[in-house]
Each structure stands twice: as structure tokens, then as C-alpha cells.
Amino acid sequence: MSTDTAAPVNWTEVYSTSTGDRGMDEISFAARDARYVRMYGTARGTSYGYSLDEFEVYGSAASSSDTDPGDMISNDAGIIF
Questions:
Q1: Model confidence pLDDT, tens digit, residues 21-77
Q2: Which residues, including other chains, have CB under 8 Å from residue 5's CB and lie 6 or more apart?
Q3: Which intervals hold domain F5/8 type C (predicted)?
Q4: Which of 5, 4, 24, 33 is nearest to 14 (CA)?
Q5: What phi and psi values does residue 74 have, to the nearest 5 degrees?
Q6: pTM exceeds cut of 0.70
Q7: d(CA 59, CA 28)
Q8: Cα gap 1→37, rounded to integer Å
Q9: Nearest 5°: phi and psi at 69?
Q10: Nearby residues of 12 by Cβ (< 8 Å), 6 or more positions away
């Protein structure tokens, strides 16, 4: 998660695992303020890459003026966040 107001640079890890089970995982942690949330994979389990069917984030909504993500950013691989 990141609280950066522009393009996110500073990330705080709230969960990590190296033992994916191909099942559904519900991950809970204490509420935190954040503007951006990401799933960052570091090692693929197969040659096909990562498989993420659904990614949900729950919490209280910010005021409408705080929810505009601004410009989309992309990385060298062409992935848009």
C-alpha cells in the first residue's frame, strides 16, 4: 500500500507469502490509510506467470476529492497500474 499522493513510489508491505496454494485466500490486517494498493509478485509458480482472478479491497471511502487516481502509470513491462 502507498499513501503517496502522486505516482506511488513509497510502498509499505502489509502481507507476504511464499507458499501460494492455488485457492482463495482472505487476508485481513489492521485498517490503514492508503491511496494505492498493489499485488507484487516476485516468483512465478509456472512458466505462464501469475494468475489472479479477483482482488478486492474493503474499507471506508475517502471524500470524493481524494479518490481521483490522477494520471495512470506504467512500468517497463508495459503493465498499467
A1: 777 888 888 888 888 888 888 777 778 777 778 888 887 766 655 556 555 566 666
A2: 35
A3: 1-60
A4: 33
A5: -140, 165
A6: no
A7: 11
A8: 4
A9: -75, -10
A10: 1, 2, 32
